[in-house]
Amino acid sequence: MNVGYMTNAFGPLVGSGGGVTSIKDVRYETLCRDEEVFQKIQRQGFNGVEMFDGNLDQFASQPKELKEQLQGMGLSLYGVYAGANFIYEDAWRDELWRLQRTASIAAEAGAKHLVLGGGAVRASGEDQKDISRLAASLAEAESIVSQEGLIASYHPHLGSMIESPEQIDQLFSWSSISFCPDLAHIAAGGGDPLEIVKKYKDRIPYIHLKDWDGEGFVPLGQGRLDLHGIIDFLEEQSYTGDWLVEIDGYDGDPVEACKVSYEFLKNTALNKNAK
């Protein structure tokens, strides 16, 4: 079964300290021992991982060694997740520099995807031009990322400019960037994940599988989302993109969540069609 797992479930989420004073250094980071996490994910049956840009940056001087390390475990680097404000014009130059650097390291490490999240929420409320600014910045980021041979996609996320179905529609009326839907974030933002996947199926190269119980994110099959319906729909459409499980923000044991999620996927079209 060709499904990856996000490493961010295995430790607290922090931002890199240098980003407090230099926006070019802002990165997400999971506080964990990456190699140990890779091994835990591989033992459950997954064949790849996604990392935060801050975790990847620890391998900046030896990205090929990271690739070889993963390959030695039977894993690959599916993707890297990075965030940005996108809408502040002066800060954007430094953010773009950072994203280009991340894409370069990720490419050498064998990654296929760079997932982009964000769009700052202003204290004063949304400026009418923010959607167009976000779209323009995403176009620049996509151009730079594609030059490194990676696929750039946008990930709507709670706490960012793009949460609700209406906001997703508004952004995608301005932007042609690929779409990486996170099913639980879409549901928590008031959307129907299956309907949104159906609407944008032709621009989805990568999908984050996650369940939601109405209060928080939970292992696959333990929430209220119609994951079987979404997986079946995409398989019926001959979906050729990649699948990744992400169970961040879960209070339970991360290894158990990883195991439970893999067991859930064994009873879906993903496993049946892989045989």
From TrEMBL:
Would I find Amino-acid biosynthesis among this entry's keywords? no
Isomerase as a keyword of this entry, yes or no, is yes
User: Any idea where the Xylose isomerase-like TIM barrel domain is?
Assistant: 38-267
Which keywords accompany this UniProt record? Isomerase
Spell out the molecular function terms from Gene Ontology: isomerase activity
Matching PANTHER family: HYDROXYPYRUVATE ISOMERASE, INOSOSE DEHYDRATASE
> What is the designated name of this protein?
2-keto-myo-inositol dehydratase
Q: Which organism is it from?
A: Salinicoccus halodurans
Its lineage opens with: Bacteria, Bacillati, Bacillota, Bacilli, Bacillales
